[in-house]
Amino acid sequence: MSILAKKQGIGMAALLLAASTILSRFMGLIRDKVISWQFGAGSESDIYFAAFVVPDILNYLLAGGFLGITLMPLLAKRFAEDEQDGWAFFSSVLSWMACTALLLTAVAMAFAEPLSRLVAPGLAEEKLVRLQFFMRITLPAQFFFLTGSCVTALLFLRKQFVVPALAPLIYNGCIIFFGVTLPALGLAQGMSGYCVGVVAGAALGTLLLPLFLVRKGGFPFRPTFRHPLLKRFLLLALPLMLGQTITALDEQFLRIFGSLTGDGSVSLLNYAKRVAMVPVALVGQAAALASYPFLVSLLAQGDKEGFSRVLGKALRTGTGLILPLALWMAVLAPSTFTFLFYGGRMADAEILRAAPLLQLLLCASPFWVLLELLTRGYYAQTDTITPALTGTVLTLIFLPVYYWLAVPAGANGIALTSVTSLACYSLLLIVLWWKREGGTVFTGIGKTAVTSLACALPGTVLGYFLDSLVRDAMSAFSPILAAFAGLCLAGLALLCTWVPLALRFCPELLDRLKSRLSRRKA
């Protein structure tokens, strides 16, 4: 059996998706490093990042990121009852999604001019023209994202995680390849090559490769727009399609309101956001993606106790792992940003502006992990209304906060508002879950989080001083090498102190490592 078509269990699925997420985030950082080196934090990069506001909102409007979540429970049940009718249901969903995505993409491209003024109100007229050009290039990628998410849902149901794990790597790889090569060949100017790479990466990684694998395993797709279960699917998906939540729009708010705070703010907020999301991807997103099919299966079997046990452990592990990482990265933010982005058109002034933004956005990391995992718990119960409704209400509340309070405070104010909104959203979902389901899944989270954080303090403090010593000694020679050496020593200090302390005081976080050590001793 091909490795692409092989089924994986929850452990291997988590490992594959975690590796994919980590590599994808690092590739994203490499991509942003290339962009920052070539264009710094200036108008061209601001325009490029702003060009994704409309395409991303279009994706969220059609629930592209959540389509598999709403589709999988219905598909799993239908395939179990009648496989032939399950394919008929899938065909109807895919047909509607393809047509709707094409229509909305065409409309957005036709109205790129007024939309550009809406999403980047702080840009000058000539920059808006450039933004419209970028938008029209990147918008077709959403067709591939949205239809590809339907196909990927089938792979998740089959517990085939290799191709979904490869998709973000292919996507980022194409952006870097086309962004660098097209201008070098004289086929594109500025950052337009990166926009072409977005479309190519979405087509290849998100749709064509998953479609190839699904067809190898049998894919009796026939275009149709009717099925009795379609109404049920729409009722579940509509809250996600219409409910534009804090999590869905957080990155867009950084871009929209960042454009009102001067040149470079959109780029710096974007760079800081990318770095801050690395620990979230490492801890939260991979675990959420891997655990969701199993949560759905447990509920389908009527095993609510097993569902609570799996979700509770994921929440404890997620919060226990994210806090040490976020704390360490926040303390070492200047070195982190220097190593990743210093050089080319990114000078000392931009690094000084960016480091506090990274520290602020890292404060949202534990809330991101809670949201990634807890919303999967809601979705597994086919409850899409609660997360969507609460998130939409909070979005409406925070819109005036962004405009009237955050923008006058500059980029730092926008970052702080982002953290506050995510904290409110996660706490509200926890309260609603507690009232409805009880607090079983939250048992031990606070203790694990505090213990893990305490275990990280010695290594983080030691790492800070080691990093400072190295940077003072080597910065005149090479700021990038000094930052790299400082981060390596600081990381080693954290690893050598936190791991033994965590094994002693919160061993659940390192179950796999502990079991391997026990086997070696035996």
Give a quick precis of the structure.
By secondary structure, the chain is mostly helical.
What is the share of helical residues?
Answer: over 70%
Q: Give the strand content.
A: under 5%
What is the distance, rounded to the nearest whole angstrom, between the alpha carbons of the first and last residues?
34 Å
Shape: globular
Which structural class fits the helix and strand makeup? mainly alpha
Biggest pleated-sheet summary: none
Total strands? 0
* Count of runs of 4 or more consecutive helical residues: 22
Q: Radius of gyration in whole Å, from Cα?
A: 23 Å
Would you kindly provide a written description of the structure presented here, covering whatever features stand out?
Residues 1-6 have low confidence and may be disordered. The chain has helices spanning 10-39, 43-50, 53-61, 67-81, 83-110, 112-119, 125-138, 141-157, 162-184, 192-216, 230-242, 246-258, 265-300, 304-331, 333-341, 348-362, 365-380, 385-406, 410-437, 445-474, 479-505, 511-521. It has 22 helices and no strands. The protein has 522 residues and is mostly helical.
Please give the structural blueprint.
Layout: H1 10-39, H2 43-50, H3 53-61, H4 67-81, H5 83-110, H6 112-119, H7 125-138, H8 141-157, H9 162-184, H10 192-216, H11 230-242, H12 246-258, H13 265-300, H14 304-331, H15 333-341, H16 348-362, H17 365-380, H18 385-406, H19 410-437, H20 445-474, H21 479-505, H22 511-521
Helix pairs in contact: 1-9, 1-13, 2-7, 2-13, 3-8, 3-12, 4-5, 4-8, 4-13, 5-8, 6-7, 7-10, 8-10, 9-10, 11-18, 12-13, 12-18, 12-19, 13-14, 13-16, 13-17, 14-16, 14-17, 14-20, 15-16, 15-21, 16-19, 17-19, 18-19, 20-21
